[in-house]
Amino acid sequence: MRKNLLKIAAAGCALCLLCTTVTYADPFTENREVTVNVTGVKIDLNNPPDPLELHWALMGIDSADMKGHWAERLFYWATRHNIIEGYPDGTIRPDQPMTEAEFLKTFYRPFLAALTVGKDWTESLYRHASSWKHPVSGGNNTELRHAPISRRKAAEIIAAAQGVRYSGDDAIVYLLGNRLAAGKTDATLEGFAGDDFLTRAEAVQWIRTLKLRGMFKIKEAPEELSDPERLPALLGKAEEELPDFVYAPVTIDDFHFTDMDGNITFELGATKESIDNRYGDPDEHLDFLQLDVYGSLSVHYDANGKMEAWNVDNFTHQPKPIRTHKGIVVGESSLSDLLRQYGTAGMENDNILSYMYETIDGQPTPRFTAKEIIDKNNAIILSFVVNEDTLKVDYMFCSRYPYANFDFLNSN
């Protein structure tokens, strides 16, 4: 279980980094250096580029192709996670229809460690589709693999990946009723426009929605059609969604934890003595991670014996009755609770949600990249692991940035 601290801290730091090929010195010091390992990209730190512009430049993508497009932020997310890629000529072509093979590649990528690349790049995709019993058209017809895919056919494949089998309009109803995809105009069959070809931007939007709904694995579809009586009702009007790529407001209290049995709150900076008084001597000390373990609660103390990081798990112990200031409890709170309480910006491409803040004048300020941080000693990472099956919170972690960034390893 303790491996999860490494995983979650690394995820928090991954959220901080725009691209590993760019190394910024603190832009608020006189040492303003930058290393860019991409041919032809020039950056003037006296006039720093927009993060999106920098991202496109590093990827060799013509930003004019995406500038101002409604899906630009979605493509920033998707290209960072290798869900979709640009074309050799440096374009993204967000409004271009996808072929069935392109859709499978984009849809399967977030869930597979690797897709085999061979003489025919589509073969691996269709082997997976066959093993999962997904209703593709190009299984035995290579020409259909490279034909544009309709929104209806894409809906059938997505429904199948949920472990059900619906065809035609039933697949659309399944997606709309479960809020797994959006219609073009409204949440009706007509508004879904199933006969229209699926564009690259629409595909990325759907995949992002699936992630926010908690799709972390692909399922095998049944052989027989699923019961249409179990389809959800359509409301006709799309429900209001949480805004994407945003942080919800937090206060400094949101980095503390509360013992619900004693209604005692422990702040970051609480003394080891106060925590030992509450929970007794630690069960064990993990030297490598410099953690004192109190059952399901683990705490890292700084050199002065003050709490610098804490985490609570739901893996190997009966969880202690601990909650965050916003009421998140391991084993009880859900993915949707996290998104409502902390925002959608923390959702990247797996079941770990990470949020980064810097405290300025006593108020936590969201930071989307590490280069935005003025003083790393005032930065804090708040992260959660969600169970892939139940979508309940299995793990929560709060740490000052230096510990989450493993700075303590460099100081030894």
Automatic annotation (TrEMBL):
List residues of the SLH domain.
Answer: 58-121
Domain of life, per UniProt, equals Bacteria
Is Ligase one of the keywords? no
Q: Name one Pfam family in it.
A: SLH
For the keyword Signal, the answer is yes
Which keywords appear in this protein's UniProt record, sorted alphabetically? Signal
Q: Which residues form the signal peptide?
A: 1-25
The protein here is known as SLH domain-containing protein
Task: State the organism named in the record.
Answer: Paenibacillus contaminans
